[in-house]
Amino acid sequence: MSFPKTRLRRLRYNPILRDLVSETSLSLNDLIYPIFICEGENIKTEIPSMPGQYNLSIDNAVELCKIAVIKGVKSFLLFGVPDKKDEHGHLACLDNSIVQRAIKSIKKECNNILLIADVCNCEYTTHGHCGTIIDGDVDNDLTLETLASQSVSLAKAGADIIAPSDMMDGRVAIIRKELDNAGYEKTPILSYAVKYSSAFYGPFRNAVNSSPTFGNRNTYQMNPTNKDEAMREVEQDVSEGADMLMVKPALSYLDIISKVKNNFDLPLVAYNVSGEYAMVKAAAANNWIDEQRMIMEIITSIKRAGADIIITYHALELADILNKKNEPKKIYKGI
């Protein structure tokens, strides 16, 4: 028996020692903040199911980015909330579409910033699905054409990273091909490689009005019961030229995050999604939890599971927590 010779609690009593032997660290450099951008001017509409998050017009999105950069958050994932939609999502491919204009405006006003453009059609289609509908289902190959066109337009606008989230087969390959043909061979692709058909997306769909008007997304998003299939999805995207990988959602899929990290050496992103955020906010509103401690525990668990980078709506709150923790302490100089 090792006890009492070995007492694991010895490394926990002194808080400085506890920090010294900490195995997982969280930095502002690990965080990406999602922003919802809508048409109009001076618009800031709170999303009811996501307290503290807003649909912002481009001018207010620019101001939010400026504030975030001051706090130390420099990476953003942009989603469009257009005022018009069509059957195929062609509006997303226009050079004057909402996200393209937002990228140009933010880049004009903000330095030292990284803008990631989500590539999908669900916000732009009248039916709320992620592509072109043929015979009641999303047609994979027709949708690829729209995704590739949208990607080139976003890169042309100045997007630093293209992030396809649609889960169509073969989309990384065609996006890579069309980006290269258009002269954007230096633009990386962050693939939503493992995106499950999840109930945790509900608040997001309310925010961007993208709930399907019929059926569901089970034919293209992954079955939550499957983990081996996740490895096949990742392997395919890597072979097609993905530069970074994503697992979405995060909390119910920590095992998948760990499995992907242990089997592939590309940078791994995890998306702490809207439903996960909303649960914390609902519990905090009822004074059931210590909100700051829970946020830190959740995000740390995602990092501990293997994520290199975390997309989270808590990013600005985390910045305040981490900045306060890292404030220089007054040093007694002695006599």
Features of the shown structure:
TIM Barrel, 335 residues, 10-stranded mixed beta sheet, alpha/beta, two-stranded antiparallel sheet
- The helix tally amounts to 11
Task: Note the run of SSEs as H and E.
Answer: HEEEHEHEEEHEHEHHEHEHHEH
Going by helix content, strand content and strand pairing, the class is alpha/beta
Radius of gyration: 21 Å
CATH class: Alpha Beta
* CATH homology group: Aldolase class I
Oligomer type: single chain
Remind me, CATH topology? Answer: TIM Barrel
Largest sheet: 10 strands, mixed
Determine the N-to-C terminus distance.
51 Å
Shape category: globular
Q: Please give the domain count.
A: 1
Mean pLDDT level: 93
CATH architecture: Alpha-Beta Barrel
Low-confidence stretches: none
Fraction in helix: 25-40%
Q: What portion of residues belong to β-strands?
A: 15-25%
Number of E-type strands:
12
What can you see in these coordinates?
By secondary structure, the chain is of the alpha/beta class. It has a single domain (about 25-325), classed as Aldolase class I (TIM Barrel), CATH 3.20.20.70. About 40% of the residues lie in helices and about 15% in strands. It has 11 helices and 12 strands. The protein has helices at about 15-20, 60-70, 100-110, 140-155, 170-180, 200-210, 230-240, 255-265, 275-285, 290-305, 315-325, and strands spanning about 30-40, 45, 55, 75-80, 115-120, 135, 135-140, 160-165, 190-195, 245-250, 270, 310. Strands 1, 2, 3, 4, 5, 8, 9, 10, 11 and 12 form a 10-stranded mixed sheet that branches. Helix 8 (about 255-265) links the parallel strand 10 (about 245-250) and strand 11. The longest helix has 18 residues, at about 140-155. The radius of gyration is 21 Å and the shape is globular. The model has no long low-confidence stretch (mean pLDDT about 95).
